[in-house]
Amino acid sequence: MPSPVPGRRARGAEKRNRLTDAAERCFAERGFRATTIAVLAEAASVPQGNVYYYFKSKDAIAAAVVGRWHRQHDDTRRSGLAYLHGYIASAFERPRGLSRHGDARRLLLADLERADSPIAAELRALFAKVRAHVEASVRVALDDPEREADVVRLSRWLIAAVAGAQAHIFETGDASLASTLRETIEDRLRARLR
C-alpha cells in the first residue's frame, strides 16, 4: 500500500503556492505593510492558523514571492533582441494592475525598505540581475564592439523608458495606454539599435 506522505507533500506544496500567489496579488494591490496574515489566508483560502505552518512570518512569504521572481528571470534563456522584446512585453502584461497599483515589484521594494526588511536586498539583487541581462542583451543586439558606450546608454534608456511608462499608466489610471507605450518603446528601441 502506497504511503500517504507524497499526497500530503503535494497538498502542502499546493497550499504554499496558493499563499505565494495570494501574497503576490495582495502585495501589489495593498502593499506589504497593509497585507496582514489574515488577508493572505483569506485570499489563499487557507485557515489563518495554517499560514504559519507553511511560512514562519510575512517576511518569509515576501521572500517566497521574490524567490519566485528570481526563478522566473533565471528561467529566461533568451538574449539579444528576443530578451529585450520579452522584457518590454512583460512590463506591460498586466495593464489593469499597473493602472490601479503601479509596478508590483517597485511597490514591494518601497514597502520592504520602509519596513527595514532584509528581503529588500534580495529584491534589489533581482533588479540588478535584470539590468545586467538588459545590458548583455543590448550588447548582443548591437553586435558592434565599437559601440560599447552605446550599450550602457541604450540599456539605461530602455530601463528608464519602461519604468516611466509604467509610472505614467499608474498616474493616469489609464490601462489602455499600455499597448501604445509598449509599441512606442519597441519602435524607439529598434531605431536606436540601427
How many helices? The count is: 10
Low-confidence stretches: none
**Helical percentage:** over 70%
Radius of gyration: 19 Å
Proportion in β-strands: under 5%
Q: Count of DSSP E strands? A: 0
The profile of the biggest β sheet is:
none
Secondary-structure element series: HHHHHHHHHH
Category from helices, strands and their pairing: mainly alpha
Average pLDDT taken over every residue: 91
| End-to-end C-alpha gap | 65 Å
Q: Which outline best applies?
A: elongated
Would you write up a description of this structure?
By secondary structure, the protein is mainly alpha-helical. It has helices at residues 5-30, 37-44, 48-54, 58-74, 80-91, 95-101, 104-114, 119-142, 148-172, 177-193. Helix 1 (5-30) packs across helix 7 (104-114).
Could you give a short description of this structure?
The chain is mainly α.
